[in-house]
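User: Can you predict the 3D structure for this chain?
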Amino acid sequence: MRHKKSADPYIRSIREFDNGQYIVLCATKQQLKAISELTHMEIDMAFKRVNGNTNEWEISAYLSRVQKTLTFVRIFTNVEPAQAYQKIGLGLGQYLNSRYSHLTPIEHLQHIYKLCQVHYKRNIDKINIFQVKFEQQLGI
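Assistant: Here is the predicted structure, written as structure tokens:
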């Protein structure tokens, strides 16, 4: 039995790095289009539903018109949390730029990123090299 290739695949991107790390980006076209229209979103790794060293991240936002928090993107990765936030963010910016080229990857992120100050102070400050690089790329 052959599998038909979907016109709208849920797995949008698989990136494998030389060091064995990987990032899998999952979303529908409709979800990705909706992201470009959001005024805010959050990236969270609050739970562990995948066995082993793979972590699941969700990009979600509260939509007042439906009064619900909806997940727009799921990301599966074995990258450590601080590195993952940076790579996921930059990967998301690159992907949005490939679909909506009127903004650069960094400009896309500047339009959608809102850092949680508690998480920022608790975790990012521990790894100064990522903090400086990330802030430079976001222009903050």
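The mean pLDDT is 76. Helices lie at 29-35, 81-99, 105-112, 117-123, 128-138.
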